[in-house]
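Posted in: Structural Biology > Protein-Ligand Complexes

Title: Requesting predicted complex, iron/sulfur cluster in pocket

I'd be grateful if someone could produce the 3D structure tokens for the following input. Sequence and ligand are given below.
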Amino acid sequence: MTKQLPNHLRRISHIFVDESMQDSLIARRVQRRLAGTDKANLPWTVVSPDMDRIEFSKGSEQALYLKEYKGKFLRFCPGTKAYHCCGYRIIHIGENCPMACSYCILQAYFQDQVLKIWANQGDLFSELAEGFANQAQRFRVGTGEFTDSLALEHLTGYSHDLVEFLNNYSNVALELKSKVVDLSWMDAAKRTDRILPAWSMNAPFINEHEEFDVSTLRERLSAARTCAEAGFRVCLHFDPVIHYPGWEEGYAETIDLIFDYVKPHQIAYMSIGSFRCMPQLTPIIADNFPKTTYIYDEFIPGLDGKARLLRPLRVKQFSFIVNRLRAHGMDKQLYFCMESTDVWNEVFGYAPKDFGGLAKRLMGQSFDDQSQ
Ligand code: SF4
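-- Reply #1 --
Done. Output follows.
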């Protein structure tokens, strides 16, 4: 029987590959994995590596572009100095995402349906080998900044390769952040204490009405439990928290559900972030997701230029979520994504400077330092 690709990959209808990447491991693997599926005969187009941009516009159909990337693979997260940033480093493996969340910032970055994967993995690994060479320096890294860490894993096996490569670097903790379930990277990990599988959490209403082609919350939590049982510590992220009618019941339901699947000590850390929006994103959301209403709530421009919910509303939501999580035994693992000292103090009763800084604490938690 012909196999089908997972739901979130079903819109891919064309593969583009740089001329120089035709024989790359990734290109050969994608070809092999498509063979035997109902997408075995997708058109492949070889393009010049100098092409800046692929023109592909076929309604909701998507193209996968296996590209030779010439830029920096290891980067700093583009946080802002105005708020407490978590000091994360990004391993850049590609751009864009096959799923569709109404609030996704990638819509403003990449206004096309082209999913890019950097197929020159050898160059990526050389740069990482150099960057991570000093074993006395620790790194907390992730791939889920300009894409979803595992969305294309079924075709590319990229995270599996990365996990395998990082087996030689005990000074690196890798977070794999996703909204789908793909655990095929697990068998590559020699050290369960250096890989942090992570899933986004939200209220059920948001999962059902604002996130498309993604896994359900129960599927994500069930995957988190599988990882925890195998010895990995997981990360969960409430980001973006959205202000909608009935949010209290919704977030309470999800928080309670989490602890049906995992125990607090199996969670390395958990972020909470309110919906933030660059000014140019609002009309894009309105256009792409006409039923979405939360964008018309009460927002003010933040110090980073992004619109954010009025502070009293943010604090009300944060306090509710934090108190509920604390009642389940969570405490030090909780942190805010991009919030001010005042908001930290108001909700937690302390601020990052009281424990030596957020980046330091998260580094310790990634590496499971018992003092954190
Ligand atoms: S899964 Fe993440 S990267 Fe993909 S559309 Fe949703 S928010 Fe964006």
